Amino acid sequence: MGSWINDGVNLLARSGEGHLVRSAWTNALFIAGVCAGLIGAVASAFVDDRKRARGLYWLSWLISTSCLSLAVLQRGWRVTLAFGLLCVFVAVFYAYMRTPYLKIGGRIYALSLNNIQPDPSAGKTIGPPPSAPPDSYSSHIGQVSAPKIWWILVAFTCIVAGNVYAFGWPTQAIFGTAFLTLLCAGAGIDDATRKLPIARGQYVQAGIATVVSLLLWLAPSIAYLLGYAIGQRWPMGRGKQAAPPDS
Q1: 169 φ/ψ angles, rounded to the nearest 5 degrees
Q2: What is the pTM of this model?
Q3: Phi and psi for 143 in degrees, rounded to 5?
Q4: Strands, E, within the chain: which ranges?
Q5: Which of 14, 45, 157, 226 is the most buried (most CB within 10 A)?
Q6: 220, exposed or middle or buried, with CB in 10 Å at 0-12, 13-18, 19+?
Q7: Hey, is 144 helix, strand or coil?
Q8: Cα 159–chain centre separation
Q9: How confident is the model at residue 48 (pLDDT cuts 50, 70, 90)?
Q10: Looking at residue 138, what is its pLDDT?
Q11: 161, 162, 166, 170 alpha-carbon torsion, rounded to 10°
């Protein structure tokens, strides 16, 4: 009987040691993955050569994705695959939104007009950004075309409406709807102040957003139209300087 007890205690001790080893490796891989992603994102911003910065960015995310995926490997291949795909999505999303690093087939895909310029030749600098169309949006990353902004608005509306459809009206859905409604009201005022057409001519995106916002009681769409009417009656904001003179 005493030998059975000793064997059981030894088995539990060995399993506990194995668990501690796995936990240590998991934590180490997770920390390494997070650090690799942060270092790549920060370091690439300080590299003058765009090609080298792009290579550093994607190398860091490759290391980060590998480490983070291995960190959850013990939870099964489905969790590992899902975590890896999530890391890839974050890397691509950040590259598109903030950098000129998303280059496929010789073409750069980016949100701002500043970042879609082709890479300069060796020894040369990047030329001035292309002239922005009058309906483009100004942002801290440069000029952004109206179609891109309105597709982002469609995506955001789908996320908020999908949350309402799936979970009803929890706190996050209420705040999301309120934020979207205020955003659309401000956009309507700015568009009318700048004397631009409704939705800056992006009628397809506006139509999709309106249909989706039925789940939100059409609050964003109504707020935009009210804001547009207010902007026509009382122009305000930065758009007053950009508006063409009255004919």
Answers
A1: -120, 65
A2: 0.79
A3: -75, 140
A4: 103-104, 107-108, 137-139, 142-144
A5: 157
A6: buried
A7: strand
A8: 13
A9: confident
A10: 86
A11: -50
Please, are residues 121 and 138 in contact by the beta-carbon 8 Å criterion?
no
Tell me: pLDDT of 1 over 70: no
User: 20-39 burial, b if ≥16 CB within 10 A, otherwise e?
Assistant: eeeeeebeebeebbeebbee
Tokens encoding 220: 């964003």
DSSP 132: P
Q: What is the pLDDT of residue 62?
A: 94
Cβ contacts of residue 103 below 8 Å, gap of 6+? 54, 109, 119
pLDDT tens, residue by residue, 56-104: 999 999 999 999 888 888 888 888 899 899 999 999 999 999 999 999 9
Which of 220, 223, 230, 147 minimizes the C-alpha distance to 193?
230
Half-sphere exposure for 97 (CA within 13 Å, toward CB) = 9
Write the single-letter amino acid at 144.
V
**pLDDT tens digit sequence for 125-180:** 666 666 778 889 988 878 899 999 999 999 999 999 999 999 999 999 999 999 99
